[in-house]
Design goal:
19 helices, 423 residues, two-stranded antiparallel sheet, mainly alpha, two-stranded antiparallel ribbon
């Protein structure tokens, strides 16, 4: 008997256009290119300064230039697709609407209020992110595009393993007293911190469920598990466990045509817990959080309460010792103010309210669930155009839109199975 996803694949016209194929793979390559080329071509290194801070010694800009160029190409193609797309076949409501609105608000925050001399790229970054997101909703990715992302992820994970094991001087860090990877060091791959070595690949791993061959799914999971164990990152271990659990449960959700309430509620719950920790209503023993949260609270006053103090607030508050907001809630607040927090909340609430699911929206659920495992301690989705975290958000929006297209094309409720479809 064919699965519902296979029936929908046959029902939806196969779109081979460049608009449906290229933008998302180019976005993923752009996100990976900075770190990969920065280490392999530019020779960038992570060093420890006199104050014990981890800093990146930049020896070139080729990785950055290539990353920006690929992003420009992706946005250009998505922009053309925005005008060429058939909007009647995509979903623009619910989760998609709130996330796109949040990105639009982020553009306003950066361009109008957060004037920290970010340069032309810093000003264009949110604009490009917004245009790209709207473009993929207007022209959802085809099967070739999703397959390309799977291949890019697997090749990238394999490359990260190779550089970590064969070139430890640039692909790994010495073990610490409280942490060490399985292979005697902390693998960093193409990143500059062990927690980031496998994080991006884990975010994209639920997409491997769209592989038709089970052995390819197994290879994808195995590569990420090896990289995670080599890094010794506890956050990544939790993420991998979440992916494996999802891949076991997803076929059952697809057959039922619905994702259970606990899975739909988890992203909203994780976001709220992140907010409660930030506000001090939940006490946790997490290193360096107090100074980060205090810096954001002190800066989020006046107009900054609406527009956000900007992405550099944590770096300023900690003297450069910490650069991340340590949570999804403070990340959204710092970059887009309380308005952005409200929009993100409504996006997660709309996802909770979604009741009907086809296979693509089930995969979108997996992508969001894995991102949400990081919401409490780190931003699972970031407002940064050249990041895997942003690519994960774009994939969720595009898959939800494509799922709507599938339902229109089949003319069937996802809860219904036509007797004629059984083989």
């Amino acid at each position: 008997m064919r699965t519902r996803f296979e029936r929908e694949r046959r029902a939806v016209p196969h779109d081979r256009s460049l608009y449906a194929t290229a933008p998302i793979p180019l976005l993923v390559i752009s996100a990976l290119a900075y770190g990969a080329l920065g280490k392999l071509v530019d020779g960038n290194l992570q060093l420890t300064d006199n104050m014990g801070r981890n800093v990146v010694q930049s020896n070139g800009n080729i990785g950055s230039y290539v990353s920006i160029l690929l992003l420009f190409v992706a946005v250009a193609i998505a922009t053309v697709g925005l005008f060429a797309g058939d909007r009647s076949r995509t979903s623009n409501g619910g989760t998609n609407f709130w996330l796109i609105t949040m990105l639009g608000w982020w553009v306003i925050c950066v361009v109008i209020y957060q004037a920290e001399s970010p340069g032309i790229i810093g000003l264009l970054s949110p604009v490009m992110a917004f245009v790209l997101m709207v473009g993929v909703v207007s022209y959802p990715p085809n099967d070739r595009s999703l397959l390309a992302v799977n291949i890019i992820r697997d090749v990238g994970a394999a490359g990260a393993i190779l550089i970590s094991s064969w070139a430890p001087n640039i692909g790994s860090l010495p073990c610490r007293v409280d942490k060490c990877g399985l292979f005697g060091s902390m693998w960093t791959g193409f990143a500059y911190h062990e927690n980031s070595a496998a994080a991006g690949f884990i975010l994209l791993l639920p997409l491997s469920l769209l592989y038709r061959a089970r052995w390819r799914q197994g290879v994808a999971v195995a590569l990420v598990i090896v990289l995670t164990l080599g890094s010794g990152s506890r956050t990544s271990i939790v993420g991998v466990a979440a992916v494996v659990a999802f891949m076991v449960l997803a076929p059952r959700w697809e057959r039922r045509g619905a994702v259970p309430l606990y899975a739909r509620a988890f992203p909203l719950l994780a976001f709220l817990i992140s907010g409660l920790i930030y506000l001090g209503l939940i006490s946790v023993e997490l290193t360096g959080r107090d100074i980060v949260y205090k810096g954001i609270r002190d800066a989020t006053t006046g107009y900054a309460a609406f527009f956000g103090p900007g992405g550099l607030v944590v770096e300023r508050a900690t003297g450069g010792y910490v650069t991340g907001e340590h949570g999804q809630f403070p990340h959204v607040l710092a970059n887009s103010g309380w308005v952005g927090v409200a929009l993100f909340f409504f996006a997660m609430l709309s996802f909770l309210a979604q009741r009907r699911h086809d296979m693509r929206s089930v995969v979108a659920t997996g992508l969001l669930l894995v991102a949400a495992t990081r919401f409490v301690s780190e931003p699972g989705w970031t407002l940064s155009a050249r990041s895997i975290e942003f690519a994960s958000m774009v994939l969720v929006v595009s898959l939800l839109g494509r799922g709507e297209q599938s339902r229109h094309a089949t003319g069937l409720s996802v809860r219904e199975d036509s007797p004629n479809d059984a083989t």
